[in-house]
User: Fold this.
Amino acid sequence: MKRFHNLIQMGVNESFSDIHISGDHKIVCRKNGKIVFLNDRYTCEQIDALVLKMLRPHEFEMLRSRLSVDLSRTVNHVRIRVNVFNSTRGLSIAVRLLPGRIPTFNDLNLLPELRDFSELSTGLILVCGATGSGKSSTIAAFLAEINRTRSCHVMTLEDPIEYRFRSENSFIQQRELGQHIQSFDQGLMDVLREDPDVIMVGELREPETIRLTLNAVESGHLVIASLHATNSEDALYRMCNSFPPDAQDMVRVQLSSVLSLLLVQKLEFKRQFGFRVPVLSVLKGVNSVKATIRDNRFAQIESILQTGRRDGMYTMEKYEEEYLNTKSRMTPPSISFRPSAEIADAREYRSPVLTSGGRQPGENTVYRPDLEAARPVPSAVPQNPGPVGPGQYVIEDTSSVEDVISQLKP
Assistant:
């Protein structure tokens, strides 16, 4: 692990965005979008040993069942996202070095008017796009703006946790799939009992997750979620058509009533800037959009986008023409996404209550949640028991079956 930690620290010093470790092969890094080979390598056996030290029990189970697993860690105060997967060289590791500072709308070169949606007290903000299009960073920018400007309770459900937040004006609690929640469905049912104002759902995949998300918005919360979709029409179809036909009318009515903003984004290289910037499609939940969704006229969404400029909506073409092409300077990703020590300074703690029956290391106590203040109470068996009366038996931790039977004999 020390060698791995040193590799991460070197990645920060050299401004690497990604590190790839594959058995019997040179370590490969990405810097400024280009691949760089290092004069160092791990053997297949060394990678096996590293994975054994790195993964937690639930992550081992996932790796064995799926042959890959996503996780996140903090190494030398640097946040990293890790994917362990199987390949022709055995286990391989892909590491993404994350910036320690949460990106803002300015850092991401996003439309400044999007900040206004962070002021909503209720509604659904959907951030859509293909894998690697920057959805997680855009959602992080929304949460950072809420944290900076509002006093509220923010709960996140993520897979995995990429950016760790430090509470500023808002109280932020983060939960990770597999480590803190068994599923997004369970997390969404739990979170409504935990006094949230804002809920972030890492990804909408299953119908039940979508249903619970819509219910959470209807109950008066602001929900920010991501969805894999390449355009606004596709995103709406995916949400509604994931349900059986007899339930789709109800889902359309729910969606039409709660949708506040639907963003679709992709990253494109722009020659005038010399790097990739997000190109957005912006659909707002105005009355015409709500009626179109409710009446199942999704094919008209594109025409609404084209004619909705007065309402602040953009097609990707209009966004490039009216926003990107009017800018002479943008913030380079090498600055916004420079790996650095993360600002969240809270330790990551795994409660022994969940792993050892509530027994703290070195304590002969049993956790009794039914008692006031959930205080530890003395073990039911005293260390030096006194005389034993009729009908009473003492069973020590070291007692054998023969000892127990001998006490039962008259």
Notes: The two ends are 59 Å apart (CA to CA). Confidence is low (pLDDT under 50) at residues 360-388. The longest strand covers residues 259-270.
